[in-house]
Design goal:
Elements: H1 6-19, E1 24-28, H2 44-49, E2 57-61, E3 65-69, H3 74-80, E4 87-90, H4 96-103, E5 109-112, H5 119-129, E6 135-138, H6 143-147, E7 160-161, H7 164-167, H8 171-185, E8 189-192, H9 195-202, E9 204-205, E10 217-222, E11 227-231, H10 238-244, E12 248-251, H11 256-261, E13 267-270, H12 277-286, E14 289-292, H13 298-302, H14 306-333, H15 341-355, E15 359-362, E16 367-370, E17 393-399, E18 401-403, E19 406-407, E20 410-416, H16 423-440, E21 444-445, H17 454-462, E22 473-475, E23 484-489, E24 508-511, E25 514-517, E26 521-524, E27 527-534, E28 543-548, H18 566-583, H19 589-598
Parallel strand pairs: 1-5, 3-4, 5-6, 8-13, 11-12, 13-14
Antiparallel strand pairs: 1-2, 2-3, 7-9, 8-10, 10-11, 15-18, 16-17, 17-20, 18-19, 21-28, 22-23, 24-27, 25-26, 27-28
Helix pairs in contact: 4-5, 14-15, 14-19, 16-17
Protein name: Aminopeptidase
Pfam families: Creatinase_N (PF01321), Creatinase_N_2 (PF16189), Peptidase_M24 (PF00557), Peptidase_M24_C (PF16188)
GO molecular function, one term: metalloaminopeptidase activity
Length: about 600
């Protein structure tokens, strides 16, 4: 029998916990690889609560339950989750550990799925529960799976070869680099469990997770240069087997846990950010020595080789043409009224599909945000939240595509006519633009970390007494994850992975300062940039800067030109001259005429 209501689902979960002798259970938005985006089979929290965000946790006790989300989802969680069933709790002000310690009964047994949580998380919660003499217990099989009757199966789609002409390096070369690292560090093997790391290492892609072209799999890489790939047998094609060759042993995905048990006596590298607690448990239980250390593929993956860099430029050029067609369409149709967030997002997908036969997916769900929704930086439109794009208002669109040769991510904020934006709207947009230009023009010594550049983008907003609550830049993959570490540009707290990662030539980041006025409007201007070397006459040491990769017009209706310096106006004019050079050959007719007007110098 299918349970239609979330109340019935919560009740069924509680009954299942009783059968297992558990007093509570913790449900994260996660899969066995600690992925940012997860397959439908792993959407347990959404099934239980109805919450559609990408980050959150639920703690269930027999008499109460709570859902934990950060500030991005304060509004969304109240729209989607029944407050009679789940208490709303904000993080980081509180946490599942604090809530459980306060609400669990003395001596309670709280279950968790060790395949969905990090070892550090489990240790932290277990310590918090000690105050109540309560215990955190790993479950044998997820109890939600036992009551979710129509749970989708994991994707059976075949894994796909990512050709070396696009990857720029052979898988053998990458595996040799990992093997050299293992030998240098004194490790016998490394567990590679992040899906994009597996994809990069083996030059393999897939369609198992929406918005990220990966295949569900694990790798154990050995110091001798060989590797074991654990993947569903139905996903292995003759082309894949031939591509991987004799040095990669293909084994069933279900054999992964037993293979960890076979590493007795070995020293094994496991990334604590992507290696779930169950991996550490299996290794420790077998008598292996797991060492918590960063996945050895992460830094080389972040430093794009020349083939990947050119692939990004090519993908961005095609993507920019699709964006230009979309911006022109909005300039014509928006002032008439009749558009809404969903129809606009669908039209943008249509333009991207027309622009290139190399498009394989979007790189994330399009943030099509009208009016007050633009003030929610991570807004996701659906049938319930969809609103009209009103004439004489601000509209924000953050979107991207997964092309075979590159991953794109671009945000444009537009004034939908008729009429003029307010003086405040133009002021805030121009301050965001000034911050964007400051990052684009930055020159910095080698060894600089992203956190040291973050204030470049915020300074003009700070001087007006305002700020934004997200990072200024994230790393981006090469036909892989749109959010890729370890580099980032953000307020340096020391707590975030990658906050202390130096920026290195070949890394790609977003440049996306913003401003958000709750309940009114929001602004963000985002391009992708490539870290490159800068030659400076007389320089004492090596210096770096950014090459801008994204080319599409920025809306001049929201710019107060009087606030721009001569250098900033020169950047704008040079940027738009390049936009015209790259996009004009791909456009014609009314769209080309619109582009030429949009790219006129200030």
């Amino acid at each position: 029998m299918l349970m239609q209501t979330h109340e019935a689902r919560l009740s069924a979960l509680r009954e299942e916990l009783k059968k297992r002798g558990l007093d509570g259970f913790v449900v994260p938005i996660s899969d066995e690889h600690m992925s940012e985006y997860i397959g439908a089979y792993a959407q347990r929290l959404h099934w239980l609560t109805g919450f559609g965000g990408s980050a959150g946790t639920v703690a269930v006790l027999q008499d109460k339950a709570a859902i934990f989300v950060d500030g991005r989802y304060t509004v969304q969680v109240r729209e989607q989750v029944d407050g009679k069933l789940f208490e709303y709790v904000g993080v980081p002000a509180s946490s599942p550990a604090k809530w459980l310690a306060a609400n669990a009964a003395e001596g309670a047994k709280i279950g968790y799925d060790a395949w969905l949580h990090s070892k550090g998380w489990a240790e932290g919660v277990a310590k918090a529960l000690e105050k109540k003499n309560a215990e955190l217990v790993p479950v044998d099989g997820n109890p939600i799976d036992a009551v979710w009757a129509d749970r989708p199966e994991p994707s059976a789609a075949p894994a796909l070869v990512h050709d070396e002409t696009r990857a720029g390096r052979s898988s053998a070369d990458k595996r040799a680099e990992v093997a050299d690292w293992l030998k240098e560090e004194g490790y016998d093997a490394a567990v590679v469990s992040a899906l994009d790391s597996v994809a990069w290492l083996l030059n393999v892609r897939g369609t198992d997770v929406e918005r990220t072209p990966v295949a569900l799999a694990y790798v154990i890489a050995h110091a001798g240069g060989t590797a074991e790939l654990f993947i569903g047998e139905e996903k292995v094609t003759p082309e894949l087997a031939q591509h991987l060759g004799n040095a990669v042993t293909i084994r069933p995905r279900a054999a992964f846990e037993d293979a960890l048990g076979g590493l007795a006596g070995k020293t094994v590298a496991v990334d604590p950010n992507y290696g779930v607690a169950a991996i550490f448990h299996a290794l420790e239980g077998a008598g292996a020595k797991p060492v918590a250390v960063r996945d050895p593929t992460i830094l080389p993956r972040a430093i794009k080789n020349p083939v990947e860099q050119q692939g990004h430029r090519d993908a961005q050029a095609r993507d920019g043409a699709a964006i230009a067609k979309y911006l022109h369409w909005l300039s014509v149709e928006g002032p008439k009224g009749g558009l809404d967030e969903l129809s606009a997002a669908a039209k943008l997908r249509e333009f991207r599909d027309e622009a290139s036969d190399t498009l394989r997916d979007l790189s994330f769900d399009t943030i099509s945000a009208a009016g007050p929704h633009a003030a929610l930086p991570h807004y996701r439109v659906d049938e319930d939240s969809n609103i009209p794009i009103a004439p004489s208002s601000i509209y924000l669109c953050d979107s991207g595509g997964q092309y075979l040769d590159g991953t794109t991510d671009i945000t444009r904020t537009l004034w939908i006519g008729p009429g003029e934006p307010s003086a405040e709207q133009k002021d805030r947009n121009t301050r965001v633009l000034k911050g964007h230009i400051a990052i684009a023009r930055a020159v910095f010594p080698q060894g600089t970390v992203g956190g040291q550049l973050d204030a470049f983008a915020r300074q003009f907003l700070w001087s007006a007494g305002v700020d934004y609550a997200h990072g200024t830049g994230h790393g981006v993959g090469s036909f892989l994850s749109v959010h890729e570490g370890p580099q980032r540009i953000a307020k340096f707290t020391g707590a975030q992975p990658g906050g202390d990662q130096e920026l290195m030539p070949g890394m790609i980041l977003s440049n996306e300062p913003g401003y958000y006025k709750e309940g009114a409007y929001g602004i963000r201007i985002e391009n992708l940039v490539l870290v490159e070397r800068r030659e400076i006459a007389g320089a004492e040491g090596d210096y770096l800067g950014f090459e801008t990769l994204t080319f599409a017009p920025i809306d001049r209706a929201l710019v107060d030109v009087s606030l721009l310096t001569a250098e900033e106006r020169a950047w704008w004019n040079d940027y738009h001259a390049e936009v015209s050079r790259i996009l004009a050959p791909q456009l014609s007719g009314e769209v080309l005429a619109w582009l030429e007007q949009a790219c006129q110098p200030l």
